[in-house]
Design goal:
single chain; mainly alpha; Receptor-associated Protein; 15 helices; 3 strands
Length: about 400
């Protein structure tokens, strides 16, 4: 809930503002921790539909968390206190929602809470991986280095994901436009020309009859087809919310030709990057494996990592535990074994993560390079067949006179 308040600060100046809290008591406690004397507080009035601030437009983007982590690391290196860092960033940050979260984190820190515990209350902005990294930094006394590692890691992840998304925007847009144009032609243009062709009584070519049949299907059953597609999408969404369904969908995406190989490289890059970042920051091996399993983003690989963690608990080496799973390639097992033998597992995994990130980038470029010519050929064939099916009977009719 949002509360409006008036208060007096330590310098005797009157201040007004708003604060988000679960209840009025929680809001009062948060304001008192800011050394404010409250003179009035009330729940903010609900705004009309046109004045309301839609949270959809004030979400927290990965890029904002990357920049925030870099700023926190820089301020820690400058010997600024944690409380002042979060107060300063809360006042300067442009995202309203993130600013509110940082203010709440600062209030919790002022109340004696560790930074990691304060961040853990806001999973929308700070993942379990992020929180555990900060906890490791607190325990080792290397918070500035930890936030630096976090910023580097998030920067790498953001770069790979954004590159993949940006590369696929153009093909997706063209395909959507093509589908919309074809649907419009089949439901509005073709039926009008079909009526003219049927009135002539001439024998229509087979491809024209196919186009007419397809047009009639979309006109008569298009609504039912749309409902079926929406129902299938809803079923897929519900399936993805269950553990078994998520595992089925995640295993399915790994089996798709070529795309499955891209997914495997992306998850291997994420595993190596997460694992190396946590080891370098001083997180224990077992805990690093458990956290990596929770943030890898694929139920199949998460199961693999959990089984590896159990094997390591039982006394097995990491490389031997990884070698038992076909989803882990031999090169990864070999490099982990070298890292264990040399005591440089963190840096070896960092090198491996860079390798797989390059592989993902190259795979995305290759995929886009394959999609574009295929898309051009498909568009040309679709438009050519449709035009031939319509124009050829008209041409034959004109030639008969």
């Amino acid at each position: 809930m949002l509360f409006q308040y008036r208060a007096i600060d330590q310098d005797g100046h009157e201040r007004e503002g708003t604060i988000e809290a679960l209840s009025e008591e929680v809001a009062i406690s948060a304001l008192q921790r800011r050394a404010l004397v409250i003179s009035a507080i009330s729940q903010a009035e609900k705004k009309g539909i046109f004045a309301r601030e839609f949270t959809f437009f004030t979400g927290i983007k990965n890029k904002e968390v990357v920049i925030l982590s870099r700023q926190i690391a820089t301020l820690f290196e400058a010997q600024v206190s944690a409380l002042r860092i979060f107060r300063l960033l809360a006042a300067e940050i442009g995202n309203t929602r993130l600013s509110t979260i940082l203010s709440t984190v600062a209030d919790d820190i002022q109340g004696g809470s560790p930074i990691s515990k304060a961040l853990a209350k806001h999973p929308a902005a700070f993942s379990i991986f992020y929180v555990n990294m900060v906890r490791a930094g607190e325990e080792s006394g290397k918070l500035s280095e930890t936030f630096g590692h976090l910023a580097d890691y998030l920067d790498r992840s953001y770069e790979v994901v954004s590159k993949a998304k940006n590369a696929l925007i153009y093909p997706a847009f063209v395909i959507c436009v093509f589908i919309a144009v074809m649907a419009l032609m089949l439901t509005y243009v073709v039926p009008q020309i079909t009526a003219i062709l049927l009135d002539t009584g001439q024998e229509l070519p087979i491809y024209t009859r196919i186009v007419i049949a397809l047009s009639n299907f979309f006109i008569n059953y298009g609504v039912f087809l749309l409902i079926a597609l929406l129902a299938l999408a809803a079923y897929g969404y519900r399936l993805s919310r269950t553990s078994e369904g998520r595992r089925f969908l995640n295993s399915l995406e790994l089996e798709i030709p070529y795309v499955g190989d891209l997914y495997r490289k992306m998850y291997l890059a994420r595993i190596a990057d997460n694992f190396s970042t946590m080891l370098i920051s001083g997180v224990p091996v077992i805990e690093s494996l458990d956290i990596t399993a929770s943030v890898v983003g694929n139920a199949v690989y998460a199961t693999v990592l959990k089984e590896v963690g159990e094997a390591v608990k039982g006394g097995s080496s990491i490389s031997d535990a990884l070698a038992r799973h076909p989803l882990i390639p031999g090169i990864m097992v070999a490099m982990v074994r070298v890292g264990e033998e040399t005591g440089e597992l963190g840096s070896i995994l960092t090198t491996l993560a860079k390798f797989y990130n390059r592989e993902v980038t190259n795979a995305v470029d290759t995929l886009v390079g394959l999609i574009e010519p295929f898309m051009i050929v498909a568009l040309g064939l679709g438009v050519g067949i449709l035009l031939a099916a319509i124009l050829m009977p008209i041409y034959n009719l004109a030639g008969s006179f």
